Amino acid sequence: MDYFLELLIGGLTRGSIYALIALGYTMVYGIIELINFAHGEIYMIGAFTALIVAGVLAMSGMSGLSVLILASVVAVIYSAAYGFTVEKVAYKPLRHASRLSPLISAIGMSIFLQNYVLVAQTSDFLPFPNLLPDLPFLANYVGFIGSTEFIIIGTTAVIMVLLTLLIKFTRMGKAMRATAQDRNMAMLVGVNVNRVISNTFIIGSALAAIGGVLIASHVGRINFYIGFLAGIKAFTAAVLGGIGSIPGAVLGALVLGCTESFATGYVSSDYEDVFAFVLLIVILIIKPSGLLGHKPTQKV
Asked: Does a structural domain hold residue 280?
């Protein structure tokens, strides 16, 4: 039972990180019906930004919690700026082009950002300090979950609630829902569609940066290539849950994370990716729109 709980917590931890990244994919797709394949690199840039800021702040003698907060804030702002720039450079000029053009542009942006960080940093793995604080009460009263896992899962849960409230009850959220439903009609009633699209990229990039800081602190090392695999897994999670559905992205990410964890624990770590993608294929055969997805309605 203890081993099962360990694998379950590990799967929920993985899934929480995938969820933070997958939300960026599904939000962008919900608004403009295109996939931002440079999103994984935004996650990677967030982790590198936090590493640089943490290194500078650590030399000043600041406490670990202060370093974590400031490094996270800077990483979020920096990554959000990159997400905003990607939208302006890779998507906005091609908004009325064929669907293939912005797709190729996003892939090109992904390769550019990878090589940009490779040149600016190094191809080697760099150690990342554990910025997440210890929570003694977990050992005293819970026991089966560590501080790092608790913080990652808890942070993701809080962000999910805040994002849901943002989309359902704020003016920005209503504009995002209107744009996703019918962009032309939204413009006719006064919604600034360009601003909505930019805000979507900014929010998704900020969430990816938080995921980058959390997982880098958990794993303890990063390199320029971490965004590629994480991006593919998060995209898989978004498709698994139903691309365009925010609850679906979270559910798909948790299912994917737990599948990988249990496959690693009970079968072999060599097959974790195989089981993850087999699960995706099976679910899409049974329900092509994903777990919580729905068939698009025809607009007339």
From this structure: no
